[in-house]
Amino acid sequence: MTSTLSTTKNHLVILPPTTKPTIVSLTHPRTRNLARFVVDSSDPKHTKVYEITQINGSNAHFEGTPDPRSIILQVEGDKGSVIQDPSVFMTTPFSPLWLILPTLVRHKDKLMTLDDLHEASCHGVDRMDLITQDTFDKYIPDVCEVMDEGEKFYKLSNEKLLAHLKAIVASIKKSLPNDIYVRHVQNLLDSDASDEIKDLAKEHISMNMLGSNLPPDVTEILLKSVDFEPYNKHKAEYKAKRDAESAAQGPSGPPEKKRKKSAPAKEEKAPKNNKRLTAFFSVVPKK
Q1: Which of 23, 34, 123, 200 is the most exposed place for a label (fewest CB within 10 A)?
Q2: Does 278 score more than 50 pLDDT?
Q3: Where found, per UniProt (predicted)?
Protein backbone atom coordinates (compact mmCIF):
# COMPACT_ATOMS: atom_id res chain seq x y z
CA MET A 1 0.00 0.00 0.00
CA THR A 2 1.37 3.41 -0.94
CA SER A 3 1.21 6.11 1.74
CA THR A 4 -0.01 9.56 0.81
CA LEU A 5 1.85 12.50 2.35
CA SER A 6 0.72 16.11 2.23
CA THR A 7 2.95 19.10 3.02
CA THR A 8 1.85 21.62 5.65
CA LYS A 9 3.31 24.77 7.23
CA ASN A 10 1.69 24.04 10.60
CA HIS A 11 3.67 23.50 13.82
CA LEU A 12 3.85 20.38 15.96
CA VAL A 13 2.68 21.20 19.50
CA ILE A 14 2.54 18.44 22.10
CA LEU A 15 -0.33 19.47 24.38
CA PRO A 16 -0.88 18.32 27.96
CA PRO A 17 -3.68 15.86 28.71
CA THR A 18 -6.62 18.23 29.12
CA THR A 19 -10.13 18.56 27.77
CA LYS A 20 -10.13 22.38 27.72
CA PRO A 21 -6.75 23.70 26.51
CA THR A 22 -6.50 27.37 25.58
CA ILE A 23 -3.32 28.76 24.02
CA VAL A 24 -2.78 32.33 25.20
CA SER A 25 -0.08 35.01 25.37
CA LEU A 26 0.78 36.09 28.91
CA THR A 27 3.51 38.28 30.35
CA HIS A 28 6.44 36.11 31.41
CA PRO A 29 7.46 36.98 34.99
CA ARG A 30 11.20 36.90 34.24
CA THR A 31 11.43 38.74 30.91
CA ARG A 32 8.21 40.80 31.15
CA ASN A 33 7.70 39.93 27.49
CA LEU A 34 4.73 38.08 26.07
CA ALA A 35 5.16 34.32 25.98
CA ARG A 36 2.90 31.48 24.90
CA PHE A 37 1.16 29.34 27.49
CA VAL A 38 -1.52 26.67 27.58
CA VAL A 39 -4.20 27.26 30.20
CA ASP A 40 -6.22 24.25 31.34
CA SER A 41 -9.59 25.44 32.64
CA SER A 42 -11.18 22.01 33.00
CA ASP A 43 -11.15 22.40 36.81
CA PRO A 44 -12.43 25.90 37.76
CA LYS A 45 -11.04 25.54 41.30
CA HIS A 46 -7.51 24.83 40.09
CA THR A 47 -6.41 26.36 36.82
CA LYS A 48 -3.34 24.60 35.43
CA VAL A 49 -0.79 26.45 33.33
CA TYR A 50 1.82 25.07 30.93
CA GLU A 51 4.61 27.00 29.24
CA ILE A 52 5.19 26.34 25.54
CA THR A 53 8.88 25.79 24.79
CA GLN A 54 10.38 25.42 21.34
CA ILE A 55 12.83 22.56 20.83
CA ASN A 56 15.03 22.90 17.76
CA GLY A 57 15.90 19.99 15.56
CA SER A 58 19.68 20.02 16.07
CA ASN A 59 21.11 17.09 18.02
CA ALA A 60 24.36 17.70 19.88
CA HIS A 61 24.80 13.96 20.52
CA PHE A 62 25.38 13.20 16.84
CA GLU A 63 28.05 15.53 15.52
CA GLY A 64 28.32 15.85 11.80
CA THR A 65 24.75 14.81 11.11
CA PRO A 66 22.59 17.33 9.24
CA ASP A 67 19.86 19.10 11.15
CA PRO A 68 16.38 17.83 10.32
CA ARG A 69 14.46 20.03 7.90
CA SER A 70 10.99 18.56 8.35
CA ILE A 71 8.87 16.18 10.40
CA ILE A 72 6.88 13.31 8.93
CA LEU A 73 3.65 12.40 10.71
CA GLN A 74 1.42 9.48 9.90
CA VAL A 75 -1.70 8.38 11.70
CA GLU A 76 -3.36 5.02 11.36
CA GLY A 77 -4.15 4.32 7.74
CA ASP A 78 -2.40 5.45 4.63
CA LYS A 79 -2.54 9.23 5.00
CA GLY A 80 0.18 11.37 6.51
CA SER A 81 1.67 14.82 6.35
CA VAL A 82 5.08 16.49 6.22
CA ILE A 83 5.53 19.50 8.53
CA GLN A 84 8.08 21.84 6.99
CA ASP A 85 9.24 23.32 10.33
CA PRO A 86 11.30 20.67 12.20
CA SER A 87 10.83 22.39 15.57
CA VAL A 88 8.74 20.69 18.24
CA PHE A 89 6.81 22.77 20.76
CA MET A 90 6.62 21.10 24.18
CA THR A 91 4.44 22.09 27.13
CA THR A 92 5.90 22.00 30.64
CA PRO A 93 4.01 22.69 33.89
CA PHE A 94 4.25 26.31 35.01
CA SER A 95 3.04 27.28 38.46
CA PRO A 96 0.29 29.93 38.39
CA LEU A 97 2.08 31.45 41.39
CA TRP A 98 4.90 32.66 39.10
CA LEU A 99 2.34 34.63 37.06
CA ILE A 100 0.84 36.12 40.22
CA LEU A 101 4.20 36.91 41.86
CA PRO A 102 4.97 40.14 39.91
CA THR A 103 1.73 41.64 41.24
CA LEU A 104 2.57 40.59 44.80
CA VAL A 105 6.05 42.11 44.48
CA ARG A 106 4.67 45.33 42.98
CA HIS A 107 2.23 45.74 45.89
CA LYS A 108 4.46 44.21 48.59
CA ASP A 109 3.75 47.04 51.05
CA LYS A 110 -0.04 46.79 50.75
CA LEU A 111 -2.67 44.60 52.32
CA MET A 112 -4.96 43.48 49.49
CA THR A 113 -8.03 41.34 49.24
CA LEU A 114 -8.21 38.37 46.89
CA ASP A 115 -10.46 40.39 44.56
CA ASP A 116 -7.95 43.25 44.48
CA LEU A 117 -5.03 40.92 43.73
CA HIS A 118 -6.92 39.15 40.97
CA GLU A 119 -7.99 42.43 39.39
CA ALA A 120 -4.47 43.89 39.62
CA SER A 121 -2.96 40.78 38.01
CA CYS A 122 -5.46 40.82 35.16
CA HIS A 123 -5.08 44.55 34.49
CA GLY A 124 -3.60 45.08 31.05
CA VAL A 125 -2.99 41.35 30.50
CA ASP A 126 -5.45 39.68 28.16
CA ARG A 127 -6.70 36.24 29.19
CA MET A 128 -5.06 36.38 32.62
CA ASP A 129 -8.64 36.15 33.84
CA LEU A 130 -8.59 32.48 32.82
CA ILE A 131 -6.69 31.88 36.06
CA THR A 132 -9.52 31.82 38.56
CA GLN A 133 -9.68 33.45 41.98
CA ASP A 134 -9.89 29.98 43.54
CA THR A 135 -6.50 29.27 41.98
CA PHE A 136 -5.13 32.50 43.48
CA ASP A 137 -6.47 31.42 46.86
CA LYS A 138 -4.69 28.07 46.51
CA TYR A 139 -1.20 29.54 45.96
CA ILE A 140 -1.11 32.97 47.62
CA PRO A 141 -1.11 31.78 51.29
CA ASP A 142 2.19 29.94 50.61
CA VAL A 143 4.05 33.23 50.19
CA CYS A 144 1.87 35.82 51.94
CA GLU A 145 0.92 36.96 55.39
CA VAL A 146 -2.82 36.43 55.83
CA MET A 147 -4.93 38.72 58.02
CA ASP A 148 -8.51 37.66 58.63
CA GLU A 149 -10.73 40.51 59.79
CA GLY A 150 -14.01 39.19 58.51
CA GLU A 151 -12.45 39.42 55.07
CA LYS A 152 -9.00 38.05 54.27
CA PHE A 153 -6.18 40.40 53.40
CA TYR A 154 -2.87 39.32 51.88
CA LYS A 155 0.61 40.81 51.89
CA LEU A 156 3.80 39.34 50.46
CA SER A 157 6.07 37.84 53.13
CA ASN A 158 9.75 37.66 52.21
CA GLU A 159 10.32 34.94 54.82
CA LYS A 160 7.51 32.71 53.53
CA LEU A 161 8.46 33.36 49.91
CA LEU A 162 12.10 32.42 50.54
CA ALA A 163 11.13 29.28 52.46
CA HIS A 164 8.75 28.25 49.66
CA LEU A 165 11.38 28.80 46.96
CA LYS A 166 14.06 26.93 48.91
CA ALA A 167 11.78 23.93 49.28
CA ILE A 168 11.40 23.86 45.49
CA VAL A 169 15.17 24.23 45.03
CA ALA A 170 15.74 21.24 47.32
CA SER A 171 13.39 19.19 45.15
CA ILE A 172 15.21 20.26 41.96
CA LYS A 173 18.59 19.33 43.50
CA LYS A 174 17.42 15.78 44.16
CA SER A 175 16.34 15.23 40.56
CA LEU A 176 18.96 17.08 38.49
CA PRO A 177 19.24 15.45 35.04
CA ASN A 178 22.62 13.83 34.49
CA ASP A 179 23.56 16.02 31.50
CA ILE A 180 22.93 19.19 33.55
CA TYR A 181 24.95 17.77 36.46
CA VAL A 182 27.89 16.98 34.17
CA ARG A 183 27.81 20.38 32.42
CA HIS A 184 27.25 22.64 35.44
CA VAL A 185 28.82 20.69 38.30
CA GLN A 186 31.27 17.99 37.23
CA ASN A 187 32.91 19.94 34.39
CA LEU A 188 33.33 23.11 36.47
CA LEU A 189 34.95 21.52 39.53
CA ASP A 190 38.26 19.83 40.21
CA SER A 191 38.16 16.07 40.78
CA ASP A 192 39.12 16.54 44.45
CA ALA A 193 36.30 19.02 45.16
CA SER A 194 34.70 18.47 48.56
CA ASP A 195 31.12 17.34 49.01
CA GLU A 196 30.32 20.81 50.34
CA ILE A 197 31.53 22.45 47.12
CA LYS A 198 29.62 19.94 44.98
CA ASP A 199 26.46 20.57 47.01
CA LEU A 200 26.85 24.33 46.57
CA ALA A 201 27.30 23.84 42.83
CA LYS A 202 24.11 21.79 42.64
CA GLU A 203 22.23 24.37 44.68
CA HIS A 204 23.51 27.20 42.49
CA ILE A 205 22.34 25.63 39.23
CA SER A 206 19.03 24.58 40.84
CA MET A 207 18.38 28.16 41.95
CA ASN A 208 19.15 29.45 38.48
CA MET A 209 16.84 26.88 36.91
CA LEU A 210 14.03 28.02 39.20
CA GLY A 211 15.01 31.64 38.55
CA SER A 212 14.18 31.24 34.87
CA ASN A 213 10.52 31.46 35.96
CA LEU A 214 10.84 34.26 38.52
CA PRO A 215 11.15 38.05 38.46
CA PRO A 216 14.88 38.95 38.42
CA ASP A 217 14.77 40.73 41.79
CA VAL A 218 13.25 37.64 43.42
CA THR A 219 15.97 35.44 41.89
CA GLU A 220 18.60 37.83 43.25
CA ILE A 221 17.15 37.55 46.77
CA LEU A 222 17.15 33.76 46.44
CA LEU A 223 20.80 33.61 45.32
CA LYS A 224 21.93 35.99 48.07
CA SER A 225 20.35 33.77 50.72
CA VAL A 226 23.25 31.29 50.36
CA ASP A 227 26.99 31.99 50.67
CA PHE A 228 28.37 30.74 47.35
CA GLU A 229 31.83 32.26 47.93
CA PRO A 230 33.58 28.88 48.52
CA TYR A 231 32.04 27.50 45.33
CA ASN A 232 32.90 30.59 43.27
CA LYS A 233 36.49 30.58 44.60
CA HIS A 234 36.99 26.89 43.81
CA LYS A 235 35.50 27.28 40.35
CA ALA A 236 37.74 30.27 39.56
CA GLU A 237 40.87 28.48 40.82
CA TYR A 238 40.07 25.36 38.79
CA LYS A 239 39.51 27.44 35.66
CA ALA A 240 42.85 29.22 36.18
CA LYS A 241 44.54 25.83 36.64
CA ARG A 242 43.09 24.48 33.40
CA ASP A 243 44.01 27.64 31.50
CA ALA A 244 47.61 27.39 32.77
CA GLU A 245 47.83 23.73 31.73
CA SER A 246 46.50 24.53 28.28
CA ALA A 247 48.99 27.37 27.88
CA ALA A 248 51.87 25.11 28.98
CA GLN A 249 50.94 22.44 26.45
CA GLY A 250 50.97 24.96 23.64
CA PRO A 251 49.20 24.38 20.34
CA SER A 252 47.76 20.93 19.82
CA GLY A 253 49.71 20.30 16.61
CA PRO A 254 53.35 20.94 15.64
CA PRO A 255 53.87 24.40 14.15
CA GLU A 256 54.27 24.48 10.44
CA LYS A 257 57.76 25.38 9.30
CA LYS A 258 57.95 28.30 7.00
CA ARG A 259 59.03 27.24 3.63
CA LYS A 260 61.97 29.13 2.23
CA LYS A 261 61.33 30.58 -1.13
CA SER A 262 63.65 28.92 -3.59
CA ALA A 263 65.82 31.36 -5.46
CA PRO A 264 65.04 31.54 -9.15
CA ALA A 265 67.42 29.43 -11.19
CA LYS A 266 70.11 31.43 -12.93
CA GLU A 267 69.82 31.37 -16.67
CA GLU A 268 72.89 29.89 -18.27
CA LYS A 269 74.45 32.14 -20.84
CA ALA A 270 74.70 30.60 -24.28
CA PRO A 271 78.26 30.10 -25.56
CA LYS A 272 79.43 32.80 -27.94
CA ASN A 273 80.02 30.33 -30.78
CA ASN A 274 76.47 29.08 -30.68
CA LYS A 275 74.31 30.25 -33.53
CA ARG A 276 70.84 31.59 -33.22
CA LEU A 277 67.97 29.40 -34.29
CA THR A 278 67.15 31.74 -37.21
CA ALA A 279 70.58 31.14 -38.68
CA PHE A 280 69.56 27.68 -39.82
CA PHE A 281 66.94 29.11 -42.14
CA SER A 282 67.96 30.72 -45.39
CA VAL A 283 66.23 33.82 -46.69
CA VAL A 284 64.01 33.10 -49.66
CA PRO A 285 64.99 35.50 -52.51
CA LYS A 286 62.25 37.69 -53.94
CA LYS A 287 60.88 36.63 -57.32
Answers
A1: 123
A2: no
A3: Nucleus
